[in-house]
Each structure stands twice: as C-alpha cells, then as structure tokens.
Design a protein that fits this description.
This protein is mostly beta strands and 290 residues long. The protein has one domain (2-286): Porin. It has helices at 2-18, 34-43, and strands at 52-64, 75-89, 94-110, 116-122, 125-133, 140-150, 162-174, 178-192, 200-210, 216-220, 223-227, 237-251, 254-267, 273-286. The chain is built from 2 helices and 14 strands, in the order H-H-E-E-E-E-E-E-E-E-E-E-E-E-E-E. The two termini are 38 Å apart. The longest helix is centred in the first third of the chain and has 17 residues, at 2-18.
Length: 290
C-alpha cells in the first residue's frame, strides 16, 4: 500500500514539475532580484493571490482514540494532496481563484474489535472558486465563493459518500514581512448514499507567516475542523496549533517553494482524532497560462 501511495505521489509531483516547460507567459525566474523573489514568497501564502501554483502536500497523521473506540494504540495515516491553484482575470478589478484538491490516502480502519487494517485509495475531491479584488492599497485582502465536495473516494473508509455544497471565504493581511488570515469553508451534504451520515462540516485554515529574511518564512497554517452533526461536543472540534518553516528558491527558471510543519491538536474528538500532523509541502510556481 505504501509503495502505491508513494508511486501516485511521485507521478503527480512529476507532472507539477514538468508542466511549466511549455509555457511562455511568465518571464524566467532565474536571476530575478531578491525583492521579486520575496514578493513571490509572500504571495504564495495568500489564498486569494494572483499566482498559478501546484501544491504537493504530504501529510503524516498520528490518529488517537483515547477511549479505545476505534484503536487501542495510536495509528498512522498517510495523505497526499494534489492542489493546483489557478487564477483568471475577470476584469481589471476582480479575479477568480480556482482550487481543486485531489487527495490520496493510506488510512487505518477498525476491521473488527481486535483487528485494524489499512486501505489505500482516492478520497473525496474538493473544488473551490472564489472571487477577490485584484489589488488593494491597505494590505487587507478578501475573497468569497462556492465550494463543493464530490464522492470520489474509492473506499467507504476514505470518504463521506455524499455530494456536498457550501461556501468559502478568505480574509488576509499581507505586507513585506507578514501574511496572516483565515480561510474557512463550510459544506452541507445535498445527496449521495442514503445509508451514509449527513454532512455539515467546517474546515477553517488559519495562517500566520513571518519573513525574518528574504525568501524565508516561519509560522503555521493548521486546519480547524468542526463537525456540526456531532451530538456530543467533545467529538465535534479539532483545534491544532503548529510551527513550520518555508523557503522559496529557483530551480533553473522555476520558482519553487518548500515547507515543513508540525501541528498538534490541543483539542480533538474523544472518539478518535488526529493528535499530530507532520506535513511537507513542495509548490512549483507556474507561468500564468491564461
């Protein structure tokens, strides 16, 4: 299973690295002044920014079940997210940001009271589209738009089995050294397998990045989860905090950002939840194709 996971991740990563070779819309990044690279560093952390990117995120999750409902011992979950970011100019004042997410998992599940097994495959795909102002003089940015989740999971343990629709928003402050903000999405199930549980889920990524030197960032970008269908409040909230570091450099003519981060859930579901997340992200910044 792990070999298949790594093979799929390597395939998507290869696609992301070779994609820019045929594009000519953006000047070569090699030899750019450090001020320009710093602008790319900051803009690449902005969820309503203007850049085309392909984010390859590798997550290593440690799942705990404190009361032994699912696992008596902590279990590990591998997750790779393939996340292209594409922007389109709607006018001189507004742009559209499209963010699909295609997840791949190698995830544990309780096969019986005493047996834990692993399943590998696709998870539920996401698609978000936000409209945002093209520029602002204040440093404060925002965006809003629809978001959807599709039941593409190849196994019952890897997805909800539901079609989901909702709303996404973002509020960001950005200057030469700081990027801070929140990027919430809320989904409600609107169809799908009638035998599966209904969905009302909030995922809110909050982020705080400081640039102590040009092309370097220190900070965090964890995801808060709120499951509104839980009757027991102890099982509804996941609240992580973290610390990470990011660096932007050029690989030939290609701007490339790498980051590593560790997040700890100070609040997590009592039934079963992620205690630790260790993530490594590799993001090529592409020429703007349209």
């Amino acid at each position: 299973m792990l070999r298949a996971f790594l093979a799929a991740a390597l395939f998507c990563l290869t696609l992301s690295l070779v994609a820019p070779t045929g594009a000519q819309a953006q000047p070569a990044a090699e030899g750019k002044p450090s001020d320009d690279l710093q602008k790319l560093t900051q803009e690449s952390s902005n969820p309503v920014g203007s850049l085309w990117m392909i984010t390859n995120q590798f997550n290593f999750n440690v799942i705990q079940s404190p009361r032994g409902h699912l696992f008596k011992k902590p279990r590990t979950q591998f997750n790779y997210n393939f996340q292209p970011v594409m922007t389109f100019d709607l006018s001189s004042d507004y742009r559209l940001i499209a963010r699909p997410v295609i997840p791949v998992y190698n995830s544990p599940y309780a096969e019986s009271l005493k047996t834990v097994n692993y399943t590998f495959g696709l998870g539920d795909a996401e698609l978000m589209a936000m409209v945002a102002p093209s520029s602002t003089d204040s440093g404060f940015l925002f965006g809003v738009g629809p978001t959807a989740v599709f039941p593409t999971a190849t196994g019952k343990e890897l997805g909800s089995g539901k079609w989901q629709l909702g709303v996404a928003a973002a509020a960001v402050f950005m200057n030469d050294t700081w990027v801070a903000g929140i990027f919430p999405q809320q989904w409600w199930s609107v169809g799908g397998d009638p035998s599966r549980k209904e969905v009302s889920l909030t995922k809110a990524q909050y982020f705080l990045w400081y640039s102590p030197a040009k092309t370097w960032q220190v900070g965090m970008s964890p995801n808060i989860l709120i499951d509104w269908t839980q009757k027991d409040a102890d099982n509804a909230l996941t609240l992580p905090v973290g610390l990470g570091v990011a660096k932007l450099f050029t690989l030939g003519k290609l701007p490339l950002k790498i980051s590593a981060e560790a997040d700890y859930s100070v609040v997590r579901p009592r039934h079963a939840g992620t205690e630790w997340t260790f993530k490594f992200t590799l993001t090529p910044i592409l020429p703007k194709l349209f």
